[in-house]
Design a protein that fits this description.
Length: about 110
């Protein structure tokens, strides 16, 4: 299992980079710039595929790190659904958890 994290990728190359990520195996988009990939490739081998779509600009970055359980998160439930591919999470209760509604409070939009 690997986590691919990209930063400041030129939008003209982004679609091709995402296609390269999809070709690596089962994948999920965690955020618009990070992907979880289940693949038999080692991190260095994974780097070979999408690296060609990250330009020479030093502010553009691609990181490949291995990811494993246990993990913990705080954020969007859809992202957590993808992270479940890692295996079991640490059990913890978020600070703003509301036992009465069994959820986090809604954020007020101004």
């Amino acid at each position: 299992m690997a986590l691919l994290i990209t930063f400041n990728v030129d939008p003209t190359r982004l679609a091709r980079l995402v296609e390269a990520v999809k070709a690596l195996g089962d994948w999920g988009e965690l955020t618009p710039s990070s992907y979880l990939v289940e693949s038999h490739f080692a991190p260095g081998e994974i780097m070979e595929q999408p690296q060609g779509f990250v330009g020479p600009n030093e502010s553009e970055c691609l990181w490949v790190v291995t990811a494993a359980a246990p993990w913990a998160s705080y954020g969007d439930a859809i992202v957590e659904d993808h992270a479940e591919l890692l295996g079991p999470a640490d059990s913890w209760t978020v600070r703003d958890w509301d036992e009465a509604s069994s959820s986090r409070p809604k954020t007020k939009v101004r």
